[in-house]
């Protein structure tokens, strides 16, 4: 089984897991062209498509892929804004593809129906979790966002996180602003800078690394709580308030 990140749009990745016989699972194909090009070049055939949420940069290529590969099975959250024939899946269910089980977890926050998928090795988090950050809270509430982040943080730490955007460097600047004495974070930032200089993706990254470095997974730490408190000018220790303060701070943060 081989994992590939296909760049799409300005900073999206379409992830593909490809079996030795060429069958592939494709996650969040916002565009068809990168998938069609890779499939033609490398001789693989999409067998399943997994969708994490309804945003067009995650689902925009599905119809064209279904036209090219009529047998492809599509799995999506229960969400009327995904107007595509699909198997609907939710929390606790799992999808079988390429002999692997993809477990579904419900992670509202970025959108209210966002889901993530994980195997024993990989976590496909869509826009719910980025390296050193998380998706904007467009529809969810702070308690939902915190619960979703906690759910992701409780998954096996060896999972490799495959998120849908290359935002690591800009997230790193904010994360270091929040948590300036975190040595693991400084090291991750340096490594990510080197990867981008070589035009390599900074992903996937282990969940273990994110637990050490990502401030949105560290709202229970004194360092992150102190930074949010200083930013808001009042003491904040309730994690719902910490995650809400952090998310709002990041939304207005310009590097
Ligand atoms: Zn999105």
UniProtKB/TrEMBL annotation:
Keyword set for this entry?
Answer: Hydrolase, Metal-binding, Zinc
Give the Metallo-beta-lactamase domain ranges.
Answer: 11-165
EC number in record: 3.1.2.6
In which pathway is this protein known to take part?
Answer: Secondary metabolite metabolism; methylglyoxal degradation; (R)-lactate from methylglyoxal: step 2/2
Co-factor: note:
Binds 2 Zn(2+) ions per subunit.
Q: Does the keyword Flavoprotein apply?
A: no
* Catalytic reactions of this protein: an S-(2-hydroxyacyl)glutathione + H2O = a 2-hydroxy carboxylate + glutathione + H(+)
Group of enzyme by EC: hydrolase
| A Gene Ontology BP annotation from the UniProt entry | methylglyoxal catabolic process to D-lactate via S-lactoyl-glutathione
Q: Which CDD domains match?
A: hydroxyacylglutathione_hydrolase_MBL-fold
Where is Zn(2+) 2 annotated to bind? 57-58, 127, 165
Which is an annotated GO molecular function term of this record? metal ion binding
Q: What does this protein do?
A: Thiolesterase that catalyzes the hydrolysis of S-D-lactoyl-glutathione to form glutathione and D-lactic acid.
Q: How does it assemble?
A: Monomer.
Protein name, per record:
Hydroxyacylglutathione hydrolase
Organism phylogeny: Bacteria, Pseudomonadati, Pseudomonadota, Gammaproteobacteria, Lysobacterales
